[in-house]
Amino acid sequence: MIEIIRLRGHVHNYSEGVNAGTIKGENKKMYLFSRKDWLSPHEPKPNVAISFEEERKWARSITISDDK
């Protein structure tokens, strides 16, 4: 069985023109993401706290973090 680990971070930048951006993880690594992996109905915006699954250099299954 594969254990899925969710990481935390924030949106670093996002371009509506290409529907893609970058995320900076709490681990200080940068990850690429595509709009298709963004699970929130709200558009990605810089500095939004999120959680995600890592797949090599990509962030997948991205959700907005509910931590205050």
Summed up:
With 68 residues, the chain is an all-beta fold.
Report on the architecture of this protein.
The protein has 68 residues and is an all-beta fold. It has one domain: Nucleic acid-binding proteins (OB fold (Dihydrolipoamide Acetyltransferase, E2P), Beta Barrel). It is built from no helices and five strands. The protein has a five-stranded antiparallel beta sheet, with no helix packed on it. Strand 4 and strand 5 form a beta hairpin.
Secondary structure elements and their pairing?
Blueprint: E1 6-15, E2 20-25, E3 30-34, E4 49-55, E5 58-64
Antiparallel strand pairs: 1-2, 1-4, 2-3, 4-5
Q: Which stretches are poorly predicted, pLDDT < 50 over at least 5 residues?
A: none
In terms of quaternary structure, the protein is single chain
Q: How many extended strands?
A: 5
**What characteristic shape results from the CA principal axes?**
globular
Major sheet details: 5 strands, antiparallel
Structural class: mainly beta
The neighbouring-strand order within the major sheet is: 3-2-1-4-5
Q: Name the beta content range.
A: over 45%
**Total domains:** 1
CATH fold node name = OB fold (Dihydrolipoamide Acetyltransferase, E2P)
Order of helices and strands: EEEEE
* CATH class label: Mainly Beta
Distance between the termini: 33 Å
Give Rg in angstroms. Answer: 11 Å
CATH architecture: Beta Barrel
**CATH homologous superfamily title:** Nucleic acid-binding proteins
Give the number of helices. 0
Helicity level: under 10%
Mean pLDDT: 93
Distinctive features:
0% helix, 5-stranded antiparallel sheet, OB fold (Dihydrolipoamide Acetyltransferase, E2P), 68 residues, 5 strands, mainly beta, single chain
